[in-house]
């Protein structure tokens, strides 16, 4: 059976189903009255009432006739075709046959002809290309019109505020409202006259075996609407651009492997006559003993893979890449806006975007002196709503910072405990993992787990709070509502996900002090030092754990959880023929597409975009990991939309909305963060200053750098509260007459007239770091300005024609 034609229903069915609970007689009677009044006010025909096979669920199928469709299409200024496009297609691109393996069939890429369109006018119906009134409006347009009607119909004569399907869903009168899929996704419809677009999407788009092929964006747009189509267009373009960054990042990593043997400072650390003779000061109070620098041999070699000359090149390259990505996406977005006839979408959709909640709460008007229009105004002032919203957001951001500080305090408090517990641990004798399981590693892993739990709890709480705050602000349009909610949620997620990386990159090991005068948080916990291999390798580890963990967890939530739920609900009915297992029952068993469905899809990708841009200087392989994830993400999202979710109500959108501004903000911020990572987190600048200014030989080499980068402290001057307890020092310490220890800093040695104060080399390095930041900012900003000017001039030239 073709479910585009049920009885008198043609092309599209919009289904509402209500839950019938016989035990609650009073509620049932009230719901019957409400439902009856709601259906009377719909002003639609072809209503059909169906009972499910289990006898507990009732389906109400609604069809809007031509007269109603034409009336609302006129009111909402919907564009419809009036003439076939007679502009000849562009000529074939040379060597286009090379792309044949990546192409899809033409009927999939172009599911409908191209037309010239105009705003629908019911009084000039002969002007438009109407071959069949029942198929003139596509399914996406019909569902939008039906939902517009449902969202504004009143269900109470006494209270005019009681209106809209959304309110009926919230109070339990109806369980859900959704448009139907056109057929089963794994097989074509039996009726030859019924379209099988869902089957085509599944066959050519939603299978992982098609990961190397282009996306049928026009078919996605036709079936799901422009809003979902623009998301997949952006995701595909982002994945394509990631391939270039992934190749360059992989080459930078290969460069680190190829020059592995040229790592002079790591050789000095591993040399028993150099690193084996350097005694380092304790890393914590009481529970940490003296240690030899040669014990950090393996971590030093690992650090070199990501802290070499290629790191600087890749940081500059990513600054240019992110600019090209954003500017080329603007071009791609403008092209889609033209091809999908969305150029003046804002004016066309102004009325349709108006939220019913706004219309209910805003009852009085005020004349606009400029436009001479009288828009509805909310009962509460905009200032009061903004102050309330800002105060609530500030409270939650303060709560996040409090949680961050709590995690930092945890790291500081347990490091000494882990140092005492793991000193005699049996894992120390294991060849493979003995050098990896250290107090620093245990502290980082447990702190990351604690941070992850906090993130999940706060995410659950803040999502509901953000929705409540946005509802209180009474945004005028759906776009304004989504933008306000997006900004609140992203600000929270930004702090939540990136806080640990920011701490390791810019705070850990930067305010430690020196053995005679250590710095303490709240006067109690000694500030944490970097791992022996440096803070960059720890930032790399933190980035990999958070980024990969989030992507894996996200894919499990997106794919596995909906599949398990749907399998459990429909496990006994999937094999039934459609005569017994109807289309509306099949869609009823699928997961609902929530109001924030696309928001979480965008959020996942934008958070990933932040990881590969804000901290990419510490991990050149981040774009490669993101590319591998996104290749899977495109097909997982396609599979999820096609097979696991009910068909969402189609919505129009001419851009990715406020996410565009968020991406630009991240891009600008990433140049700053990468410059500071190279300057202050990595050891590149100190090594270059030593090589070209402080090396004693005539030839510039890195020999002697390790000894030069470590300061000396007299052990006898270490305060009692900082000294190791009895039994904490290794045996070799007592068998030798050791009077000094070394620490990472540039300070004068004991006995000098300026002992333990910064040397001139420290200030030279400090000046070189800031000079590098200024130069890097200039080198990244200038290409952006020139690129923007070139794109503007090119656009101006095209506009003349």
TrEMBL record:
Residue span(s) of domain Anoctamin dimerisation: 38-217
Span of domain Anoctamin transmembrane: 220-777
GO CC entries: plasma membrane
Compartments, as annotated in UniProt: Cell membrane; Membrane
Membrane topology: Multi-pass membrane protein
UniProt keyword annotations, A-Z: Cell membrane, Glycoprotein, Membrane, Transmembrane, Transmembrane helix
Membrane spanning residue stretches: 6-26, 231-258, 310-329, 393-421, 441-462, 602-622, 662-681
Secretion signal span: none
Protein's name in the database: Anoctamin
Source species taxonomy: Eukaryota, Metazoa, Chordata, Craniata, Vertebrata
